[in-house]
Amino acid sequence: MMRVFIFLALMFIGFTSYGQKEERLTTIGFVQILNDNKEEATYYYQNNWLVLRKMAIEKGYIHSYQILEVPKDEGEPFDLMLITTFSNEEQYGQREANFNELIEEKGPVKLMNDKQPSEFRKTIFNKRRIRQWK
User: Fold this and answer.
1) Which residues lie closer than 8 Å to 25 by C-beta, 6 or more apart?
2) What's the angle, vertex CA 13, arms to CA 9 and CA 19, rounded to 5?
3) For residues 6-19, b (16+ Cβ closer than 10 Å) or e, as one string?
4) 4 has a pLDDT exceeding 80
5) Could you tell me the CA-to-CA distances from 51 to 3, 11, 83, 105 in Å, in that order?
6) 18: helix, coil or strand?
7) Residues 21, 134: Cα–Cα separation, whole Å
8) Where are the alpha helices (DSSP H) in the chain?
């Protein structure tokens, strides 16, 4: 009887450890650089997007972030992938409020050559609530 109990307990522990789902949620923005304005886009993302993500890490608002440059491909109309990962559903749910706070704290958007973002970049689409597999 004790062997059966131990066996069932070990099976239960094994199933629950494999059954846990990853809590992190990721958003990915797919961005196209317009009119060969790579310098303006690079400046914009380094002095705004990255600064806000670094601030968000320091305040515990996000888990991690990345910017990936995508090689040119006719089948993919985007040049950059902007990735932000949140530790859990709570962080994800607070993202807008948290980033609004950080934007206020950071101050005005920094631009190169006074070009507005709509002149040098276009968000093709966003994917939200992406879950990683363990």
Assistant:
1) 85, 86, 88, 89, 91, 92, 128, 129, 130, 131
2) 140
3) eeeeeeeeeeeeee
4) no
5) 58, 47, 14, 11
6) helix
7) 7
8) 2-19, 38-44, 50-58, 89-93, 95-106, 117-120
pLDDT, tens only, 58-92:
999 999 999 999 998 888 899 999 999 999 999 99
Coil/strand/helix, residue 69: strand
Burial class, 78, CB count within 10 angstroms (exposed 0-12 / middle 13-18 / buried 19+)? middle
- Phi, psi values for residue 114, rounded to 5°: 55, 20
- The whole-angstrom distance between residue 17's C-alpha and the CA centroid of its chain comes to 26
Would you call 26 exposed, middle or buried from its count of C-beta atoms within 10 A (0-12, 13-18, 19+)? buried
Tokens of 120: 């040098």
Cα 50 to Cα 34: distance, rounded to the nearest angstrom: 20
Distance CA 102, CA 110 (A): 14
pTM of the model: 0.82
Q: Residue 2 pLDDT more than 60?
A: no
Q: Which residue has the tokens 């050559």?
A: 113
